[in-house]
Design a protein that fits this description.
Blueprint lengths: L1 H13 L2 H14 L4 H13 L3 H14 L4 H13 L3 H14 L3 H13 L3 H10 L5 H13 L3 H12 L6 H13 L3 H19 L1
Amino acid sequence: IIYKSRLAYAFYELGAYEEAIVLYSDILEYHPEDVSVMKRIGEIYGKVEKYDQAIDYYNKVLECNGEDEDTLYQLALFYIETGKFLQSLIAFKKVSYLTASPVIQYQIGVTYVELGLYNEALEYFINYNLKDSDSIFMAGLCYYELGRYNKAVEWIDKYLESNNSNTETDYYKGLSYFHINDFKKSAKHLKKVLKVNKKNSS
């Protein structure tokens, strides 16, 4: 077992993931409750983008230790990769009960956005005092999706206080101004978007 374990790790480090999985699976047959091996197999499946298999192994880890923060976090990310946003939200929330990390709070907000629950997302982007620029922009996007276009412009402008404008900011500001009938400002921002798109397609 020690020899197989060392060889499996060597294959893992070399990026020979199929060979590593075969050896780790053999080890797991002898030690079916070895959480570190389950975790490694799940990690490898994630690296090769076989997310369903990765999810299976990470859930096996959680059956043995339901409070493993790293496993819960990675599981949530794999759920996102497979479009299972509700399961992702549940996993992120479990992590949030174990740690007060602002990264987790941000991920919860983003997952609510993926589910189209913009009011719930705003709770995390605003009420949890996430003052990083990404959270500020996401708050602006949520206000846009909720049809609160003046607030969308306000929060995107907050984002622009510490960031340069980009296609996304121009797009959402342009559409927001359009919805509040400020067509001059709308045209100004949407023309920037068109200019970038033409440049990228040429």
